[in-house]
Amino acid sequence: MAMASSRYICSRCFPCPRNRNTNLYRRLDFNSGSASVFAVSRGFSSLSLALRSPGPPRSICQSRSQSRSSNRSQHNRNVTSPRATATSSSSSSYSTQSSQSVSSSSSSSSSSPSPRSSGPPQSRTPSFDREVAQLATLPLHPLTLSDLVRFGKPPLSPDLLLASASFTLRVLPIRIARRILSLRNLPYIVVSNPHISQIYNNYLHSLRLLLSFPKENFPSSLKEEARFNDVLSEIVDTHSNTIPSLARGFSECKRYVAPDVTTDFLEEHLRARIGTRLLAEQHLALHDASLTSDGHTLPGVQATDPKASLSTYIGTIDTHLNPTSIVKYCADFVGDICDMKYGVRPTVIVDGMTDAKVAYVPSHLEYILTELLKNAFRATIEKGNVDKPIIVTIASAGMERYDDGSDSDSDDEGSSSPTKMLENGESSGMQQDDWFSGVRPGTEVQGDGLKSDILGIYGSSGTGDSSGADTIRAEAARAVTIRIRDRGGGIAPEHLPLIFKYSFTTFNNSTTVGGNGGYGANDAGGLDVISTAMNEVESSTIAGLGFGMGLSRSYAQFFGGDLKVESLFGWGTDVYLGLRGLDVDR
Amino acid sequence: MSKAVAFSLSRLTRPSSLAPAYSRSPLLLLRLVSKRSISTHQPWRPSSALEEHVAREARPISLRQLTFFGRNLTLERLLDSANYVRTELPTRLAHRIRDMQRLPYVVVTNPNISKVYETYYESFEQLRKTSEIKSSEENDKFCQLIKKMLNNNLSVIPDLAIGVLECRDFVPAAELDNFLKTMLKSRISRRTIAEQHVALTETFNSPFFYPHSEGNGVDHTNGVDFVGEVFLKCNAREVVEKCGKLCQDLSRQANGPDTPVPEIIIEGHPEATFPYIPSHLEYIIGELLRNSIQATIERHGSDPKTKLPPINVLICQTQQFVIFRISDQGGGIPQDIFPHIWSFSKGPRRQKQLQNISLVPTMSATLQELFHTSAGEVIDKNGKRRRGTSLAPLSHRPPNLRLGLGLPLSRVYAEYWAGSLKLHSLASYGVDTILQINKLGNNLERLVERRNLDGI
């Protein structure tokens, strides 16, 4: 009931007085992958028209989120590190996940307008459709690590925190709108599936929440920022456990959809999801790290704050991430599970440049390494080579920027050409644009203004934290390669082409493929207990779905890295994980 | 000359529209010929002959087929082989000539490319005019012709490499690379069948001296390791050891006898055997090991007391493949170069490499030519097996002269017999190269990229 009424109000707040047919045009235009200037400019005008509408729902959203704010701040009070934020948010919702469905916002009260857990897709209003289509045509900013750390080390000054919130509020709706559009373009029978339908409705709901905020000068105070933060955290929670639903839905629809369609959609969706979540979690983490425990006052920005001087984190990013320690942490974890399941554990030797440091998202690296080590451990044990150590070699190199005019086109042989960095967005072919310009329809002046605002803060505000920001902004990229070399017998040649596919699209669940190690084989009965036992980013949610390698590669590629596998069949496997991090020391 | 080339090219690139006109109108033909005779010293070449050969399809051959002629060698089979080579060479040459004709004018007028074009056309004309070989004497004459061509064409690789580098601003790099790859692959194929035939002829002509008679070579039908150029039982460990030793010697020769040389450790299934053309495999392994050794020394210093990290070579075999994985700790490949390691024309160091290549007059792309040998001294213990064919060290280059051709050329060799070559760089740590060789020898040669085939 509550949901229905909120939907009604929300749709009313974006009146769409005209041009219903141009909506169709724009959607087609988006589907073709090219955001034409025409469509964008039309989108600007009509959207800005929508922005000017008065906001009765604002008050509703306000009250709703205020009721929830206490909930969230309580939740965050104990959080000390951003990594813990990511994990605890997913674990909390995991533990509260009810049996019938992954309901949105488990932390929210019953008054929350959570979407129905099943049933046909929510009916939509034309105006909302228009808005979605318009948002989706806007250029998507590809997320880079340097963008994420651009606001500098927390605690942030109020201005910077507001800038971060404002930026998140600008970019997030575009990404969500694209997800919605992408889901909408799936066959009807797929989206009608209760699982997929629920995910679809989650996205619609999240977008409505975000669009209920004023478009101009918001948030302008810390109070408003807190309100936004609460909504954001609810959105993050809503979507934190959707991958099993997604997988279940698609596997139920396997008969109706070509495997390629499924694979393509999932790949794009999961990749986009990484960015969307990172963006939201980054702001949440910055918020938490910038506010004192009472949730309302900012600490002074003096360097005396012990939290500031000790922590190497900027939001979800560890600026002094030591890959060796993550490898050891993950190896210990996987080893424990092996002990439990097999009674033995292979040893892991870490060599190479073991003291390398890089700025990266630790949760991503943890997910990838757990997945890779899980495969290596399992293969080694099943091959009977427990006495042969798994050798993890870490290499790290600063990357000089080089300018060779003729090199701008990508080279297919280069495993990680810089252009890849641009492709972490959703669909290629969209115009890659500058951070702020063009993000907001019809408000280019404001966009520029904000840009200079932020530069101004860096340059002259004298808040004391500019030192951190400056060194980070002047950063160079750092390439880290982690080679995991096992003696687990390699991957059978016939399985090799499938290892990055989502297994339920390639393997029939009833037939167990494999015996040749964990790679690409049906994971049922393998070390999947690891995934369920581990409360890391995604792993709690994708046990046994065979998502591991594909998702790991998506994570690695997200910031311009890559994941490559060399199988020496009969001997072992080499996995090369290349990461592009930031070089903060320089 | 450029005018002449321009003229002949503009004619040749539109053969379908113009060639019939020539035959119909003798007057026009006459005028063209007379015009040419004024402006050029190039011979007149009727395009119809080329057209005819371009229209023919190459007949790829497998390693097994290559050995077929040689088992139970009889005069009949020898002549079969001769006539296969006689018809196949001009066909394959014609395809490459047509490839060159399709290149932009600016490229083919480059002196180096133009030189190759002329060389190819000349060889084509000579070969197509050879009539069917019906006797041993005719075959001997034919072999002389082939040998001469093999020697004359040794400058083709440097010429092409320089030409392509000089033209890198005019044509997209991918296009140039693709062109050069096809040219080289085709060149390997032509040399393979030609040398195979020469080797068979020599075997046939000296029945009382079989080149490797020291072991089991007296019997020509059973237990023979070599059939012509093909070594039936390439042993993975032996190849690596041999190449490793050569490269270590090479390194000492270049850096001084006291400099430490990294040890080469072989592990895995080293006794894998498979039929292959040793010179091809040795070239690849040699280039890879040479890179690894040089990188390791440069990275870890040449102090005699230093213990250099070893180079690990893993050999592993599956039903179909033999895989060589060479891991070094030579510091990896710099980020700016890495994207271009497989390219012949692209990358930041090309100007320097261009100068280096111009120091190399001829290149047969074999391991042996890396050595300065004095007075034909044979370092290769298998040297006598080569029986003076063109794969013997006919040309030399200083060992540490960097050409930027080793990796892409190795990949061409690997892909030629349906193998593959991959490289993973661990930046500022080391490099893993993975060479996959097709073990069964029943794969056909890979002559051209698909898209070139479509163009024919």
From TrEMBL, chain A:
Acidic residues bias spans: 405-414
Keywords: ATP-binding, Kinase, Mitochondrion, Nucleotide-binding, Phosphoprotein, Transferase
Main location: mitochondrion
InterPro entries (UniProt xref): AK/P_DHK_N_sf, BCDHK/PDK_N, BCKD/PDK, HATPase_C_sf, HATPase_dom
Record region (Disordered): 51-128, 401-444
Pfam families for the chain: BCDHK_Adom3 (PF10436), HATPase_c (PF02518)
Compositionally biased spans, kind Low complexity: 58-126
Stretches assigned to the Histidine kinase/HSP90-like ATPase domain: 360-583
UniProt protein name: Protein-serine/threonine kinase
Signal peptide extent: none
Protein family (similarity comment): Belongs to the PDK/BCKDK protein kinase family.
MF terms (GO), sorted A to Z: ATP binding; pyruvate dehydrogenase (acetyl-transferring) kinase activity
Gene Ontology BP annotations: regulation of glucose metabolic process
Enzyme Commission identifier(s): 2.7.11.-
GO CC list: mitochondrial matrix
Subcellular location: Mitochondrion matrix
Listed Gene3D superfamilies: Alpha-ketoacid/pyruvate dehydrogenase kinase, N-terminal domain, Histidine kinase-like ATPase, C-terminal domain
Native species: Arthrobotrys oligospora (strain ATCC 24927 / CBS 115.81 / DSM 1491) (Nematode-trapping fungus)
Enzyme category, top tier: transferase
TrEMBL record, chain B:
Subcellular location: Mitochondrion matrix
Domain Branched-chain alpha-ketoacid dehydrogenase kinase/Pyruvate dehydrogenase kinase N-terminal: 60-220
A Pfam family reported for this protein in Swiss-Prot or TrEMBL: BCDHK_Adom3
SUPFAM superfamilies the record matches: alpha-ketoacid dehydrogenase kinase, N-terminal domain, ATPase domain of HSP90 chaperone/DNA topoisomerase II/histidine kinase
A Gene Ontology biological process term: regulation of glucose metabolic process
Coarse class of the protein's main subcellular location: mitochondrion
Alphabetical keyword list: ATP-binding, Kinase, Mitochondrion, Nucleotide-binding, Transferase
A GO-annotated cellular component: mitochondrial matrix
Molecular function in Gene Ontology: ATP binding; pyruvate dehydrogenase (acetyl-transferring) kinase activity
Enzyme Commission number, as recorded: 2.7.11.-
Enzyme class per UniProt: transferase
Signal peptide span: none
Family membership: Belongs to the PDK/BCKDK protein kinase family.
Protein name as it appears in the record: Protein-serine/threonine kinase
